[in-house]
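2024-03-11 09:14:02 INFO worker-7 job=invfold-0412 stage=load source=structure_tokens
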């Protein structure tokens, strides 16, 4: 099917979501030739198939040279120009510096869907391996376009979601280093607030990221610190349980502090 000017106006959540995906993983060329390409790893195949069904002017492709990737492509001139009018121009990093790669002008109701699309393209949701942090949902957006990321941050702040800004040097596949910027949350409460913001009434999303955001909490036994408090000598929380001693006034738990290497006894918890 030919392009029917669907992206002249962003008036559905599906269009807003696709636009967010395109801003994250898409490349839109309008000089000399007209070509739009969006690529992701093949674990996202089901999502890309759904997008192709929603917008059948896009071609779903794979290439033998990149067997782990899946692509959505179009050479339609009007489609590429409509995306450019919405702010999607390439190269994104260079144009971000001149404000030519900018956040699209969308109605407020479509902002969560656009951000969800961008999150599915360039964001991540995970839980730390550290035992006591296994229920602490982390959210991060990572990209090389700080001005565009700041536009997202302003919208999140307006909705009471205050992420941390950070930057770092990252190594690319060619061995060169580049500056990467990120919005980051290590707070379970804040991360869930973000998830509720972008997934409210959502009809399309990456299932595994949704599942990560709404994973059931893992039941964990209390730590030594939660049971017995701090070390009575140095105040450390790093305690090791030893044997239980039966005293005249009742059983006592022997505790050894890993930091100061001293031992003490406390009553068993009730």
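2024-03-11 09:14:09 INFO worker-7 stage=emit residues=270
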């Amino acid at each position: 099917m030919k392009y029917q000017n669907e992206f002249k106006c962003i008036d559905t959540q599906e269009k807003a979501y696709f636009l967010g995906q395109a801003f994250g993983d898409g490349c839109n060329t309008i000089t000399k030739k007209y070509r739009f390409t969006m690529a992701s790893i093949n674990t996202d195949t089901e999502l890309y198939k759904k997008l192709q069904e929603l917008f059948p002017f896009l071609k779903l492709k794979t290439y033998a040279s990149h067997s782990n990737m899946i692509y959505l492509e179009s050479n339609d001139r009007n489609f590429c120009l409509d995306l450019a009018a919405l702010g999607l121009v390439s190269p994104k990093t260079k144009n971000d510096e001149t404000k030519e790669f900018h956040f699209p002008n969308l109605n407020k109701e479509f902002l969560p869907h656009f951000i969800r699309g961008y999150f599915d393209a360039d964001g991540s949701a995970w839980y730390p391996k550290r035992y006591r942090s296994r229920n602490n949902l982390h959210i991060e957006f990572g990209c090389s376009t700080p001005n565009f990321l700041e536009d997202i941050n302003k919208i999140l702040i307006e909705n009471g979601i205050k992420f941390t800004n950070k930057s770092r040097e990252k190594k690319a596949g060619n061995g060169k280093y580049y500056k990467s910027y990120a919005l980051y949350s290590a707070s379970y409460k804040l991360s869930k607030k973000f998830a509720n913001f972008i997934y409210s009434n959502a009809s399309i999303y990456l299932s595994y990221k949704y599942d990560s955001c709404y994973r059931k909490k893992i039941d964990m036994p209390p730590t030594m610190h939660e049971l017995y408090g701090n070390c009575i000598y140095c105040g450390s929380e790093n305690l090791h349980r030893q044997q239980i001693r039966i005293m005249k006034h009742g059983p006592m738990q022997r505790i050894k502090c890993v930091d100061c290497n001293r031992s003490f006894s406390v009553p068993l918890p009730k």
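2024-03-11 09:14:09 INFO worker-7 stage=report msg="The mean pLDDT is 90."
2024-03-11 09:14:10 INFO worker-7 job finished
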